[in-house]
Specification:
Strand content: 25-35%
CATH class: Alpha Beta
Structural class: alpha+beta
Number of helices: 2
Number of strands: 4
Number of domains: 1
Distance between the termini: 54 Å
Largest sheet: 4 strands, mixed
Length: 78
């Protein structure tokens, strides 16, 4: 059995244990992005720009984009 699989987060190739969720990857590798996820301001998508649930377990070679967006905060426009 493989001890780790490659996934891509933004511009980085990461090796993670099989069964790791996308949220777990963010928590361990990108704490600032994980904080934004918890705060509701993170836009998390797959390589096709389709929104991804952070509880998703990625397969080998999965591609994810994570970016902070003020539009997702729920605050009203001025």
């Amino acid at each position: 059995m493989t001890s780790s699989i490659p996934i891509f987060l933004n511009d980085r190739c990461l090796r993670v244990p099989p069964g790791t969720t996308v949220g777990d990857v963010l928590a361990s590798q990108e704490p600032e992005l994980f904080a934004a996820l918890l705060g509701g301001t993170l836009h998390l998508t797959d390589g096709r720009s389709i929104p991804v649930d952070p509880s998703m377990t990625p397969g080998a070679g999965a591609i994810f984009r994570a970016r902070i967006s003020a539009r997702l905060s729920g605050s009203a426009d001025a």
